[in-house]
Amino acid sequence: MFVGREKELAELERLYSTKTYQFVILYGRRRVGKSTLINQFIQNKQAVYFTAVESDSRRNLELFSGILMKLRGIESEAMFSSWEKAFDEAALLSKKRLVLIIDEYPYLAQAEKSISSILQHYCDTVFKKIPIMIILCGSSMSFMENQVLGYQSPLYGRRTAQMKIEPFGYGEAAAFVPKYTLEQKALVYGISGGIPKYLELINDSLSIKNNIIKNYLIITGYLYEEPVNLLKQELREPAKYNMIIEAIAKGATRMNDISTKTGLDSSAVSNYINSLISLGILRKESAVTEEKNKRKTLYRLADTMFIFWYRYVFGNEFSIVTGDAESLYDNEIEVNLNHFMGPVFEKMCAEYLGRLNAIHQGKVLPFKIRQLGRWWGSNPVTKTEEEIDLLGVNEKLSSALFCECKYRNQPTDLSVLNDLLAKAERWQEYKHKYFMLFSKSRFSKEVQTMAKKRGDVQLVRLEEMY
Q: What does DSSP assign to residue 412?
C-alpha cells in the first residue's frame, strides 16, 4: 500500500517531465520510505535502480554492470572495466528518457573514494547534454548533507533539486489504520513517530495493546531493539548515545542536566548531541521569539517512537525476556499513555496550525503566522516560571496567537482558558492577541460560552484535526 508523498511525487514528476538533464539529491533517515517513494515514481519508466552494498568497489561495479546489461536485454555476468565505462553505457541508454538511481550512495562513496569526482565529471560533460535524470539517495544524513550537498563535495553545485524526506504527519499516519478511532490513530502516530516502516507494522484489526506487545514487548518484535540497531549502524559509541537519549526521554532537556544524568563531560555531551541532531534523532529547541538566547535552549527527541521506546522498553528488558509483557503494558504503559501523548499532541496541533496557515479560503487563522513554537520563561509580575504550548507570531502585524494543548480524558474547563489569558497579559508588545484551545475531549459549556462571547478564542477538538 502506497500512502502519502503526493507533493514529493508531484515534484519528481515535474522534474521528469522537463525531458532535460536533472540531478536530484534525495535523502532522509532510515525507514522513512525513500526507496518506496522512488519505486512508486519509476513505475512505467525506463530506469536503472542500483542499491549500493557495504562491500568493495569491484563488487558494487559488478552489481551495477549487471543491472545495465539486463536493461539492454543481455543476460551476462560480464562487468564493465571501470565506473567510467559503466556511466558511458548509461549515457547510451539515455537516448530515451532514463532515470538513473543510486540508492545507499554513502556505501558506494566509501567503497570507491573517487566516485563523487567521476560523477562530477560526467555531470559537467556527458550527462548535462542528454535527457537523463539522476537520483542519488542516502540514509546517512550527515554524509548526504556534508559529503554530497556540502561545499567541500565534488558534487557541490551540480544538483538541480534536493529533497529531504521527512516522517509522515498525523493525517498521513492515520491513513495506515483506517479502522481505528481518532484517539487510536493519534496513539499510532505517537508510537510510530510517523515512520512508514513502523506504521506498516500496525494491524488495525488488533487492539493498541496487542500491537504494542507484538512489536515492542516481545523479543521477536520488530521494534524491540530497533533504536539500538539504528544507533549501531550510524555511530561508533552507541552505549554513550543510549545514555544521552534515555536521559532526554526521561526529562533532562538542558545540557547541564544531560551531563549530570549521564556522568559525561559537557563538551563530550555537546559533540554527541550534535551527531544525534544530524541523524534527525534529536532537535534543538529555542523559545519562540528568543532564538538567540542560549539560556533558553533545550534538547528534545525529534522522533516520538524513540521517546516511547526509551521510556517503556529500555530498562524493562527483564520483563520482556521473561514474558511479562502484559503486566508491563497494564501497569506502566497504559496508565501513562496520556502523559506520553502530551508532546505528541502539541506536535499534532503545530501541524494543524501549519495547514491552516497555508490555506487561503475556508476556516483560516486570524493572521498569517511567521514564527511558531513553544515558549517558556519567567513572568516578571508573578515571578513564576510559565510555559506556552504554542505561540504563533507575526511581528509586522503586531499579532500573536496563544495556544494551549490538552490531551486528557476530562473536558477542558474554564480554568485552562483563564490561565492562558493571564499568561498573555505580559505580552504588551502585541496589539492583536488571539487564543486557541486544543482538546482531546470536549470543552465545558462555560468555555464554549466565553469563547463565543469574546470572539477571539477558537476551540479545536481532536476530531477536527484529522
A: B
